[in-house]
Design goal:
Chain A is α+β, with helices and mostly antiparallel strands. The first copy, chain A, is 50% helix and 10% strand. The termini of chain A are far apart. Chains A, B, C, D: Pfam families: HD, HD_assoc_2.
């Protein structure tokens, strides 16, 4: 039998706390899970630095990727299969794209990508199409199969339906991460009725639509998402840890560029410091390697690198105050000066972190450049955009998510402050106070 | 106010998926959590290699330690406080011992301890009494306070009541790990009614006893424990990963001893290879460091070390068959010979793993050397051992937990076997078949 | 010791699926639970006819009343106790008012009250202040204690703080019913983090306020409430059952008034048919008595009464279409005529049911007659209305809940319709179609 | 299309708190649910008097019956369908038998059956085969179909496989009631992993067997069952309520037989008082009718009937002490005499209730008359009885469930006792004391 349709002799079942069980019947999926590129996701946390705020959130991208696969599998096998709008030839494509959609993520990915100017979607494509174990398996399905999979993930595929299953405003990726992140952090916000949503999804050529009868379940999902953003993803303490992480990598890169002699040469960063990516090197980079370097850099003679590393490892994070990016430009400049006077380098110890509003306008409707809306399938076959039917969605459509904070090392400034430090404190209080409503 | 009684200005609350919230009011506890020795527990998994079987089980000893602390806190503040048998002076001792009971654990601790001949209880004592941040804080409570805490953890304390809260047959440690491991693996077995058990615990000079009215909740706890052992803790696949881990460390040690030239000198193992422990070095050793070494050793020229490391990282585990330690001694010797003939070193590729029965006879009663039984407090004040009152506990008392498996690299033997390998296969099948009932 | 402060020898614990345990320590509370007026609540369902839509929702007002008591108890004993703004003399008042707030409810209460022109709050007052077992117990606490309790329930008490604990926009009553109704129906919407909300409630002279840090938990609660209204409380199928119930009682009253000779004289309705309430009679009326009458009325010779009763008992409910109260006045008049022509009495078989918007504008803010807003306590002590701080609450503030449906007996009209019935069908389709968006 | 295979135009979905959703696709099932005989189960509680101990347990046999149907449906459609050992012609038979297995239950069934010498299995047969709405529907499937369904329920069917799905040691009936009763009472004991068990069930001609790999899930189920018996089903307080119930019915029957003139003639008991059953009358008898009679009998002049009814309605239950049926025969006779002396009729106020051991030896193995064991399917196809493989099951096999209690009206005896009553108290204490271990 062709490899594409090959089934395992016995179904493999993974116990999963979120979906109870994850079922694997296809040889291709089983083989993909066994690749070193996929197993590497076990060493990359799903939520980056969030575990320093919510200690339970230590789960990896590996578990999330299995979860996305399982949701896609249930969509296809339990709901879409047999419907005229669904072509079962797309089944394996959807499963593979779901499983592999995050395979290009690096350690603490958002920060890492930022400093080294990487793009995890681009890297995902390279891992799928490049010389890897994953590619070898996908090619056994068909010569153009790796490309097809990566196009779905990159949202350039002509197959809009399969694409929408993995990336749209209500897709397998988001549904898994909301449920999973809620489960591991322990917050109750992310808990919507996925089983219901799956049952009322219907395949259409342009993407998945939702039966009108399930509108309330979708409302619940959207509100969950909204609340998870504020409660978990944008939590100011996790952002403090991210700020430190970013400054560690920035310092290490700077030291490398300026010829600093490392005790432990960071060979694993390979060509990243030069702005180049080598796929083999990249795949070896995971969070245990990063944490190892933080351990050894903690012993380096460079005070800034050493201090930042011990802060991250021992969770001595920066403190924060609200910051108004428009009002406080001048004050920030002054504060930088004051930092220099007390001999704390503001480049590394004074960080503005701003949360953009993108996360939320995803269901704003009909605007130029707006994302594709969630469509409700009426009993007469019409499609209606959800905010026209739901008072609740209408109420939150267009609301902006925005938050800006100023991070600084409270301990270095507030402990037994001299006159100069007192001035710094005064300025910080002023910024904080001005923002207080 | 004395440091011992100092309260935080505002209670700190940690969101916890198992206990919902963990409450910290005491300055001492807050300070202990902030030490580098305690934060290090974030980088040591609670269940070692179990995440390679149950992918959700990626939680750390950090979360478990907070959980044990919280259970102790509830015992003391919600149940014992105000009862004549409870001395509130012991409150902080109990809280600290609960929080710190696992602080000496190393990376993948059981295997690690075995290879390097370590004892995590001894190391816990050293971390508490040695020159550490933890010790500094505890000493501020009282000069003899560190010693008191470590004595409780080592079960040598004269305070039997506090000791029993942390280590007995139904203690805060076990209650937390059963609930937590069940939560993170996703199995339903470990889910007993802890709230009920806490409410019916009563302090007595020799240890905590349980009111008769709560017997069924305790039964449930004991059965949960029994089932978790078979289902999770003794899972043959996790033991396969442990076998490989053990062989990696054994090989690295051997190579070090025989003067092998490592590309990446394993400096972080410090004096461990010489059988000595340096506390500072030990504290720096965590699972990210180990995983880092596995990454670099994967590239070493020593084939055995390299192969074992890639097996662990990419989850290419050993296969297993049931093994009868008594019947198969000879066959095992023959099998070793056959392995040599096919040039697979049996020292590293043929592993017998035997699960001892200790885990289970913990509530066997009255026997020489038997552990202290669980006592039920009757309405008339008498104490009765639980197996005398409970048919269910009586039914399982004395049952032996025992399992022995033979691990081997299936891929190296079964893929396109030549004549010699076929002989190996035959022998393995013989061993497997003989055990089949 | 005075009865007010008398404690049970041993705390009584009720297993509760929503709050896990309900704890009773006070003799007064224990005695109140044992009264016949309180035990009667076991025979009145919390959600009336909802069990005909959500089959799991068979829980009684008894369980809800215990739940409200328990929430009040936790507020007082775990959160308010010891705070300067809380007077522990009010403890028993709050507990009793919480426990007894629903004690005046009749069977299928809203419908029942409507037909017989009753007011359950008035009846609650009479049960508390009249000659009942409950009154006897409360008077043992103090002569004016019954009056104090009923004033809190009627919201005429000078004690605004205690009143707000039981009836405000975020009170023990609402928190219990949302959680409980979600649990028993099985929907996931009502599941907010009550434990968190309790912890951040603070007593103030004018009512309970909420710490700013818990805003997201309150958002979650408000959204839960919003969703439970649409999903459960306003479900059109339950309203169909309610319409039939109403028509049964209306018909029985009419028959009584017009001198119809009942086979089973409805003596238990006592003076209700004459518009008078006798407290003793009222207390004997519960849902088992009503259901008994429906059983015997099913055998009555009056066709309308008999048919409606079998519809209710055997769940042969009315069908419905959306109805526009403004547009369809004329059509409705015509439809009534058509009903008469096919010899179906529109007085009993054609029902418009309109859901008012009251349920939702409860957190509209600052308007004339608007209810008291939810106030957030800032770190500096200021109070801010929640919709000014929360984008989410702001988004739904002022949204109207409104729904109107037309109910009719589908079976009598659509099965083998003759020409006249076809006209009725046409008219119904017209009404339905006109509303379709 | 033949009625047997007719599908609903759209699947109907019931929200269920235990199984999340119950799915109905078959017209036959939908029609059966709509019959008056099935709807009647809404007015019969699943756990009889248990709600007087666990207030949450107010759920009806209606919800349980739907649950059993759903489990059978999942077995058939998700697990058995397509396997050679399963004949899909049996699908509808299994679904109908599952749905209808409890349809003959009377109000508070066990007590009711005992007093009136009824057999609910016999009554179930009559309802299925007699002149009922249910029978009418089943006959449309086939003339012999009603008989086939009732034979499965009565365990006289030649179809052993389908029979075992509904009644065996691990069947849909037990699985639903354990999960459901645990959910509604709120106890945690009954919570096993049904999804897992379903997945590993395999059809065999003689009944369902279980794959060896799922042994631990079955262990968990058996232990759950064991604990639910002790914790819920045999709870002494529920048995007190049952004792009163029994005595009410016994007294009413006695009064009827001795020509007592009832104020409200209990016509609804019809011929039951004469030991005859009329199916039409029986179907009208439900718990609301019984509770109605208790309300009116409370007002009867017969003191015993009146007192017992108010006890049941107002939950003034009997107290109890342990009773040794062998040791205390004489004491019991004496106690009866003493009761007569204090003018309390021991026939109604002194009740011995003994719990037999049947519930538990269900998995005793191989003994004469022993029930069919649970069989585990080995990988080589062999079947092994579970207690031979499981230490846990072996440990509890053969354990006896046995409990005997003496019930009496504490209030009538202990409140201000005179000399004679003191003697009664003495005797009760003696019996109680003798049993104390």
């Amino acid at each position: 039998m062709s490899y594409r349709f090959q089934k395992l002799y016995e179904e493999k079942v993974f116990k999963d706390p979120v979906h109870r069980y994850i079922h694997v019947r296809d040889q291709v999926i089983w083989d993909l899970i066994g690749t070193k590129e996929f197993q590497r996701l076990r060493r990359i946390k799903q939520l980056g630095t969030t575990y320093l705020t919510f200690h339970g959130a230590e789960h990896s991208r590996f578990t999330h990727s299995l979860g996305v696969y399982e949701i896609i599998r249930r969509m296809v096998d339990d709901v879409f299969s047999g419907r005229p709008e669904w072509n079962d030839d797309d089944r394996l494509l959807a499963l593979c794209a779901g499983l592999l959609h995050d395979v290009g993520h690096g350690p603490f990915s958002h920060t890492f990508e930022k400093i080294f100017n990487l793009d995890h979607e681009e890297l995902t494509r390279e891992i799928i199409e490049g010389s890897t174990e994953i590619n070898e398996i996908l090619r056994k399905v068909g010569d153009d199969f790796p490309k097809k999979v990566s196009e779905v993930i990159e949202k350039t595929s002509v197959n809009k339906l399969v694409t929408s299953m993995i990336s749209s405003q209500i897709d397998a990726d988001r549904m898994d991460y909301l449920l999973r992140d809620a489960y591991y952090t322990g917050v109750s916000y992310g808990n919507f009725d996925m089983e219901r949503i799956l049952r009322i999804m219907r395949p259409r050529p342009d993407g998945v639509v939702i039966k009108q009868s399930g509108m309330h379940a979708v409302e619940h999902y959207l509100i969950s998402r909204f609340q998870m953003y504020w409660q978990v993803y944008f939590h100011p303490v996790s952002r403090s840890a991210e700020a430190i992480l970013q400054k560690i990598l920035q310092r290490a890169k700077y030291l490398h560029e300026t010829g600093y002699h490392f005790n432990y040469v960071p060979v694993h960063f390979g060509h990243l410091f030069e702005g180049k990516v080598d796929l083999d090197e990249y795949i070896k980079l995971d969070e245990s390697v990063l944490l190892y370097y933080f351990q050894v850099w903690k012993e380096e003679s460079d005070q800034i690198l050493s201090d930042l590393c011990q802060r991250f490892l021992n969770r001595k994070l920066f403190q924060y105050v609200d910051f108004d990016t428009q009002k406080h430009t001048e004050k920030f400049a002054e504060l930088k000066e004051l930092f220099l006077e007390i001999e704390i380098d503001p480049e590394y110890y004074l960080v503005i972190d701003t949360i953009s509003d993108e996360a939320y306008d995803y269901f704003r409707y009909g605007e130029e450049g707006g994302k594709k809306p969630i469509l409700l399938l009426q009993t007469n076959g019409d499609l209606k955009e959800i905010s026209r039917k739901s008072e609740l969605v209408d109420g939150i459509t267009g609301k902006k998510l925005f938050d800006s904070k100023l991070y600084f090392p409270h301990d270095l400034i507030y402990n037994n402050p001299d006159e100069k430090k007192k001035k710094v404190i005064e300025m910080i209080e002023e910024i904080a106070g001005a923002k207080r409503r």
